[in-house]
Amino acid sequence: MEDLRKVAIYSRKSKFTGKGESIESQIDMCRTYLKLHFPEIKDEDILVYEDEGYSGGNTNRPQFQKMLKECRNNNISRIICYKLDRISRSVGDFIKLTEELEKLHIEFVSINDNYETHTSTGRAMLAMTMVFAQLERETIAERIRDNMLFLAKDGRWLGGNTPTGYKSTETVGSIKLDGKTRKARMLEIVDEEANIVKLIFSKFLEYKSLTKVETYMIQHDILTKKNISFSRFAIKNILKNPVYMIADEQAWNYFIAADVEIYSEREQFDGIHGMMVYNKTSQRTGKSNTFNNINDWIIAVGKHKGLIKGYDWVEVQKLLEQNRSKSYRKPKSNVALLSGLLFCGNCGSFMRPKLTQRRNKDGELIYDYLCEMKEKSKSQKCDMKRPNGNELDKLVCMEVKRLAEESSDFMKNLRKGLRSFDYNDESYQEKLKELRKSKAKYDTQIKKLLQSLLEAEGTAAHDYIINQINETDSRIQSIDKQIQEYVELANSHSSSDENFEILADMMSKTAGTIDSMTVEEKRTALRNIIHKVIWDGDKIHIYFFGCEEDEISLSDEEISEPQGVY
């Protein structure tokens, strides 16, 4: 039987550079290979998969995984790539891939290496090549670590986002790395920021609590370099950063006890300079950085001045560890519906549910909603009163049910809006029809003028015809611009029309079943139709997706005050 499966071309590059084979050139070479060796394959039979910005260290790449899915669905007969390491640099991953492809009766071809998997010799050569590819990868990793050790001995700043309290400045001298000379840089103290860092350490040693330090910073309007309030996460990152630690006797003893590689002599711990740490975090594409174990760090005395005495820095680490070991995560509310949707109308912060152990007359746990800024600042930066969460959630559900009735003004206006969109769309389509008709007429004129131009070569009419062509072409360009504008308007209205249809349908479905839903189902349903809810102290304002101007307000008379102090 004829094999109707497609042929896949796969290309990959770790990052965009002007060096090496680009994604486009890899694809072009694969297409050329197919034309030479498989001339019967048509362009429509070729599927192209491109991953740019992804390493060959593993196969967890979006387009590669999409290609594998098509292979498993029996839609691909052959995979073509420019070079083996475009697929993977891991021997284990590559062997698993070739075994799976063999079971699926899919051929694999690497055009640069001239290997094909349908022969035993080809498979053996592929495996040998992948061994060397993995060796190369491991060699690169070793070279990177060697470079780190070299840089650690020098103690310079390598670049990137500078820590709060410092700026990066160029120094006299340079660093030779991989045969290349690079400008050397070091950290220089920024007095205003450095004072904030010292304050954070001082307050943490005083309060022994990240939350209390956060509250202090908010109450005193102390902001980060990005001009936003300090969060507990930002404060903790500063407290854990060894760059602020003064290289003194306590610092030396701490790192010796922690069995960390120190690439500075004992005499360099002079009580003046700060610490420089390499290999502190692991960086992975598409994921946030993670802290490596302290045993994997590479420590050196930096060229910059430290800010925090070694004894104080070590005490802070002990406190952080104590807090971590005895801390627990408060259970999240499993009853509140508007968490993540409800905002404070005063300061714009989220309002989060606060549970009690008391129950109302219906047997429900009592909770209200509290502004995050009010809680963090101990009411100094926001004094928004707390609405009763049980009643607020019920009222929102009741309002959704009421609004979803076909007889409601909300649904009438929604349907009216849809009819208006339909009318506008018809007028846009009619205008587009007229514009395209005019363009076709001018296109015909251009063709006739070009024919006349050939016949008028060398005559007085030649220049006149060229002017006519230019004028007609200008009219065509003007029409093209109008066509584009009307196409965008039509598409915009089509999208809004679709959004309104979806909202109306979801409102109707939600209203019909919300009473029988579980709490989690209600929460999901509300998130599908509500963009946000704002509490202003007297009313809640509900904003639905696609209809943000048509807010729905519920008055304070319907929402009682919190029951008791909690």
- Main sheet attributes: strand count, strand direction, barrel closure: 5 strands, mixed
Taking pLDDT < 50 over at least 5 consecutive residues as the criterion, the unreliable ranges are 556-566
Beta-strand percentage range: 15-25%
Query: End-to-end distance, in Å?
Result: 75 Å
Q: How does the overall form come out from the CA principal axes?
A: extended
Rg to the nearest angstrom?
A: 34 Å
For the secondary structure, the number of strands is 18
Reading side by side through the largest sheet, how are the strands ordered?
Answer: 2-1-3-4-5
User: Whole-number average pLDDT?
Assistant: 79
How many domains, as an integer? 3
| Structure classification | alpha/beta
List the total number of helices: 15
User: What is the helical fraction, as a range of percent?
Assistant: 40-55%
Explain the overall architecture.
With 566 residues, this protein is an alpha/beta fold. The protein has helices at 23-37, 62-72, 84-87, 91-103, 120-154, 191-207, 210-219, 232-240, 249-257, 310-326, 372-376, 389-403, 409-455, 461-513, 519-529, and strands at residues 6-13, 46-52, 76-81, 107-110, 115-116, 166-177, 180-189, 261-262, 273-278, 281-282, 290-291, 298-305, 342-344, 351-359, 365-371, 530-535, 540-544, 552-554. The protein has three domains: 6-139, Rossmann fold, CATH 3.40.50; 166-326, Putative Large Serine Recombinase, Chain B, Domain 2 (Hect, E3 ligase catalytic domain fold); 334-566, no CATH class. It contains 15 helices and 18 strands. Strand 14 and strand 15 form a beta hairpin. Helix 4 packs antiparallel against helix 5 and helix 14 (461-513) packs antiparallel against helix 15 (519-529). The chain is extended, with a radius of gyration of 34 Å. Mean pLDDT is 79; it is low at 556-566.
